[in-house]
């Protein structure tokens, strides 16, 4: 037998099972031509909608962040540089002599990270005033002090820092890797953390809570900040 489906002739497929009997009954038939389509349960539909809505919100979030970053790079940062940073740098370079300026650069690079202040403007001054070679040596010596002071200060609050890290296990899992393994492993881990976007000043105080040794911590920090120093000097 045939039936019509949207203008087309579709044969009906039936499977017969059972044996013929003397009464002319040819057994039972099972229709194979039609199969009921099962729809997804409501829970699956809700899960799919939630998954789609999650990615839509994530895309909107990154779009807003990208737009905000573009506005800052296009207008806010140049305005801040022109009105605040450059006048201060010009004032420092014209007011102080080279020995005094070298001392100021060393002190700011060494102490600002301890006080949770950025030291990048001082690196700019070092590059502009003392050139690439002497500026690099001046900055790297200050960075050595700048990463050592928070390490020893953080050791005084070792327990409190560990309690604070336990509140954020996902964020703390990265820096805890630096405290495991041997000397070489710690050196590599600290170097990678310094190169990564992980907050520089925050890690200065949290490193001691990971039980990383001082020598691999300092060497890894110095190696990891070399790209930042080079960029700051050439800027």
From TrEMBL:
Highest classification ranks of the organism: Eukaryota, Viridiplantae, Streptophyta, Embryophyta, Tracheophyta
Domain VTT: from-to ranges = 117-234
Q: Which InterPro entries match?
A: VTT_dom
UniProt key word NADP: no
Q: Which organism is it from?
A: Trapa incisa
List, alphabetically, the Pfam families matched.
Answer: VTT_dom
Highest taxon, organism lineage: Eukaryota
What stretches pass through the bilayer?
52-76, 96-117, 129-153, 214-234
| Entry keyword Membrane | yes
Q: Which UniProt keywords apply?
A: Membrane, Transmembrane, Transmembrane helix
What are the Basic and acidic residues biased-composition ranges?
Answer: 17-38
Please identify the protein, giving its name as recorded. VTT domain-containing protein
Q: Region labeled Disordered — which residues? A: 17-39
């Amino acid at each position: 037998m045939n039936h019509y489906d949207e203008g087309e002739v579709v044969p009906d497929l039936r499977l017969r099972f059972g044996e013929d009997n003397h009464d002319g009954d040819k057994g039972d038939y099972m229709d194979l031509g039609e199969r009921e389509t099962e729809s997804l349960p409501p829970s699956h539909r809700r899960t799919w909608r939630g998954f789609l809505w999650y990615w839509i919100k994530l895309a909107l979030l990154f779009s807003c962040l990208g737009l905000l970053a573009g506005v800052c790079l296009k207008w806010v940062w140049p305005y801040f540089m022109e009105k605040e940073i450059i006048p201060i740098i010009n004032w420092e370079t014209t007011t102080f002599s080279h020995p005094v300026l070298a001392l100021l650069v060393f002190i700011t690079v060494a102490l600002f990270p301890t006080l949770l202040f950025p030291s990048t403007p001082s690196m700019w001054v070092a590059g502009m005033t003392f050139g690439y070679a002497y500026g690099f040596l001046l900055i790297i010596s200050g960075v050595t002090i700048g990463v050592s002071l928070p390490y020893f200060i953080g050791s005084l609050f070792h327990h409190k820092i560990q309690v604070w890290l336990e509140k954020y296990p996902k964020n703390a899992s990265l820096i805890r890797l630096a405290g495991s393994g041997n000397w070489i492993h710690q050196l590599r881990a600290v170097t990678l953390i310094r190169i990564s976007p992980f907050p520089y000043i925050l890690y200065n105080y949290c490193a001691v809570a990971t039980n990383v040794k001082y020598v691999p911590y300092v060497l890894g920090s110095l190696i990891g900040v070399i790209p930042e120093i080079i960029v700051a000097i050439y800027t």
